[in-house]
Design a protein that fits this description.
Layout: H1 3-29, H2 38-45, E1 50-54, E2 61-64, E3 66-70, E4 74-78, E5 90-92, E6 95-100, E7 103-107, E8 115-116, E9 119-120, E10 126-127, H3 132-157, H4 165-184, H5 193-209, H6 222-238, H7 242-249, H8 258-308, H9 314-351
Antiparallel strand pairs: 1-2, 3-4, 3-10, 5-6, 6-7, 8-9
Helix pairs in contact: 3-4, 3-5, 4-5, 4-9, 5-9, 6-8, 6-9, 8-9
Length: about 350
Amino acid sequence: MSFKKLLIALYLFVFCFSFAETHEGTAEAAKDEVYNPVPFIMHHIADAHNWHLWGEGHNSVGISLPVILWDNGLKVFSSEKFGHEEEKVAEVDGNFYKVHHNKIYSTDANGTLNIHDGHPTNNEPLDFSITKVVAQMMLAAIILLIIGFASAASYKKSQVPSGIAKFIEPLVVFVRDDIALQNIGSVRYRKYVPYLVTLFLFIWLLNILGLLPGAANTTGNIAFTMVLSVFTLLIVNLSGRKTYWMHMLDPLGKNMPFGGKILIYIILIPVELLGIITKPFALMIRLFANMTAGHIIIMSLISLIFIMKTYFITPVSLGLALFIYVLEVLVAALQAYIFTMLTALFIGSAVEEPHHDH
């Protein structure tokens, strides 16, 4: 068995062990009930104010993260006040807060939530907390900085790459030559290479980290993919040349008298301008949906053991989960490539030189 297969098998073993440990008590208490995997799956893919690793209740192991609120002043405290399962009421400077569906609400000392149409009506303070998704994003940024400085240090010693630079250089060259150059053009592609390389490595690293046991599903968080898409939206439109905006506002050009274009432009121009938003929106949804779907499928396959209440299904369940997990390793790189390539394509359309008829 190769080293990669061994790592994947070990991951599935740890994941299944954690899964079984977490639900052992509830399974014994409700043998006759049909197991519902949805709460566990949603808990796994959702963000949280503490980084839960494994276990349940007092036996759970996790990392308490800082909670930063603005509620008539700055409130900073540890998420440990909410408890491991975020079921406790946190008291800070005489104010009380409770977590409900990963959102923090102001409550009384008893943690009372006034529910209307399924949603609390309590005051919701501004939340700037370092959540699990944010913490993993910061971890990925630190790893990239370490890799970047280590690669730069190797080139100071010699022009021949050594150490981590041997792995990074082909990726940088790939993004530069096969993504930036091919989609933006030889005239202006160089100034966009740093952003595209960072984008590719950042998404890829977060995708890989998200596959580790206990990790956060950062790229499966739509707020994260939305921010990346907004960056693309700003860079594309701030880089747009005159020809790019003229194509938006006057797509027919001089091919038709202005009087004849008015009725067409009533429909055509709004559609063209809508394309400015739909392009990054498609990037946002594509990355979010693909990474979230992989996590849901893997956990759903493992949940078959508990749904069917028999260990005879285990080989089939784990075999299919292993197959999907291997696909997810490939999808991690593929989604980073697609996001970066489409970003370069959109930039290329914005900075494209005007075509002249000969």
